[in-house]
Amino acid sequence: MEKVYGFTNENINVFPEFFNFDNANVLTVLGSGDQYFGALLNGARDVEVFDINYLAWYHFLLKYTAIKILSYEEFMQMFVIDNLDNLIIYAKLREYLPDEVKYFFDKLIGLGRSFSSIKIKNTIFDNTKTNNVPYFNHETYYQLQSILQNSRMPEFYNCNLLDISKYTKKAYDVSLFSNVYHYLSLNTKDYRDFLNKINSPEILALYTWFLNREEKKEFLANGFDVYQIPGVLHQDDYIVKLSRRKQ
Fold first, then answer.
1. What's phi and psi for 117, nearest 5 deg?
2. Distance of CA 159 to CAs 2, 107, 168, Å?
3. Three-state SS letters, the chain
4. Nearest-angstrom CA–CA distance, 172 and 73
5. In this predicted model, what pLDDT tens digit does every residue of 52-73 receive, in sequence order?
């Protein structure tokens, strides 16, 4: 299994400027889980997640459970300061974890492996020093905690984006596909045709740190909207959006 992202490297705080999350049904790539948490904080009614990497689900459930039961200080200690490697706090979480997740992390302990060994060791993918993670704010953390305590665990689809229709044919108000496009062997037109088969009027088709003039031209020519936004690691990032009305 591939390693996991600790926190998002996307400026998810700007998403409400481009997508209407109010009472929305949302489909999002799982990744670090922060797109899921962000969608809930922005008013989504239900959020489902998918990822080809099953280990991302285990990491998500550890984080999900932690936010539900830990204080803000305990969460920051384990997930930021100690980079997951705090067995005292893990012991507090353990009894609340699903059995398969508990087994996985217990197995790591038995093998003498640190929990942080499952994470990508690169500051680009472990953005704990920026303000793009909304629940790093004390007040917002407890807001999210309340939401999680009063909602059910999300549906998880362990699949590639191109296979998502084999797992769900539901209608979604908003779909968030991060930078998945960069891993697909599709040109811009074929990607647009694929996305138009998904029952979702608002789609984040691509979030990217770099977009050259030719790439932007291709997206615009095929019915996408392109927005330049404040970057997380660079001066600017880009959101490529597809709306159902666009053809």
1. -70, -15
2. 14, 25, 11
3. CCCECCCCCCCHHHHHHCCCCCCCEEEEECCCCHHHHHHHHCCCCEEEEECCCHHHHHHHHHHHHHHHHCCHHHHHHHHHHCCCCCHHHHHHHHCCCCHHHHHHHHHHHHCCCCHHHHECCCHHHCCCCCCCCHHHCHHHHHHHHHHHHCCCCCCEECCCHHHHHHCCCCCCCEEECCCHHHHCCCCHHHHHHHHCCCCCCEEEEEEECCCCHHHHHHHHHCCCEEEEEECCCCCEEEEEEEECCCC
4. 35
5. 999 999 999 999 999 999 999 9
Give the residue carrying structure tokens 């088709």. Answer: 205
Tell me the two tokens of residue 28.
């999002």
User: What integer pLDDT is reported at residue 196 of this predicted model?
Assistant: 95
Cα separation, 43 vs 220, in Å, equals 29
Crossing angle of helices 87-94 and 54-69, rounded to 10°: 90
Report field, pTM of the whole predicted structure over 0.90? yes
**86 burial via Cβ count (<10 Å: 0-12, 13-18, 19+):** middle
Q: Determine phi and psi for 49, rounding to 5 degrees.
A: -130, 155
Structure tokens at 150: 């009063």
Task: Rounding to the nearest 10 degrees, give the CA dihedral for residues 11, 5, 178, 14.
Answer: -10
Specify the amino acid at residue 65. T
Average pLDDT, the chain: 93
